[in-house]
């Protein structure tokens, strides 16, 4: 593998769209119309379900152009193979399925809401490389915490789209809160300046 990781912006929008058009949900067609805008959609579940794939695709294009949809796209050579949606916590809407993720919605917390790795590249440390890149990116940003929301009872890979708990715990995160269906885990970026990430 020849892995590179790039921050999402208009310059790689075509690669992002190609990833979601053809790769991201190749083994999970149920979610193929998401385009990772679920947590940017601020209406109710019924409205989300009624939306078309093209509406979500167009929304993603608009949000990338506006600098609202952020994250990192992973490449093997020239091919996009993985994605993580990560941004200021107060830019996300959590009330459709993470009802307790409220409180300190200020500009000191960065939320990781989605990890997607092509099924051909899973269990090859791609998520760990991506998480390391995210921590390195935000370490000197002045932000206080990275925060993520791994589900407790995920069975299929697709159900671990927040990233599995052990990925975070092995790499410097700790459990901040626990609910019936998920954890809130945090990484202290001020301490993280001294920490390293396990491979």
Features:
disordered C terminus; alpha+beta; globular; single chain; 6 helices; seven-stranded mixed sheet; about 200 residues; about 25% helix
Structural class of the secondary structure composition?
alpha+beta
List segments where confidence is low: pLDDT < 50 over at least 5 consecutive residues. Answer: 194-199
The run of helices and strands is: EHHHEEEHEHEEH
Give the C-alpha Rg: 16 Å
* Overall 3D form: globular
User: Strand tally, please?
Assistant: 7
The largest sheet, given as strand count, sense and whether it forms a barrel, is: 7 strands, mixed
How do the strands line up in the largest sheet? 1-2-3-4-5-7-6
Overall pLDDT, averaged?
86
What is the overall number of helices? 6
User: How far apart, in Å, are the first and last alpha carbons?
Assistant: 15 Å
Percent helix, as a range, is: 25-40%
In percent terms, what proportion of residues is strand? 15-25%
């Amino acid at each position: 593998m020849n892995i590179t990781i790039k921050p999402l912006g208009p310059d790689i929008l075509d690669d992002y769209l190609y990833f979601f058009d053809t790769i991201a949900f190749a083994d999970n067609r149920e979610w193929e119309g998401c385009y990772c805008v679920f947590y940017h959609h601020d209406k109710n579940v019924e409205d989300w379900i009624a939306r078309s794939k093209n509406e979500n695709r167009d929304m993603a294009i608009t949000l990338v152009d506006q600098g609202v949809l952020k994250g990192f796209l992973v490449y093997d050579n020239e091919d996009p193979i993985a994605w993580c949606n990560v941004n200021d916590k107060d830019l996300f809407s959590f009330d459709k399925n993470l009802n307790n993720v409220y409180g300190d919605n200020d500009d000191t917390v960065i939320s990781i809401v989605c990890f997607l790795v092509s099924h051909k590249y899973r269990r090859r440390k791609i998520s760990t490389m991506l998480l390391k890149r995210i921590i390195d990116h935000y370490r000197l940003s002045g932000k206080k915490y990275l925060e993520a929301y791994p589900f407790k009872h995920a069975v299929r890979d697709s159900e671990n789209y927040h990233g599995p708990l052990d990925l975070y715990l092995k790499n410097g995160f700790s459990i901040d809160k626990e609910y019936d269906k998920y954890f809130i885990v945090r990484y202290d970026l001020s301490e993280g300046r001294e920490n390293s990430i396990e491979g």
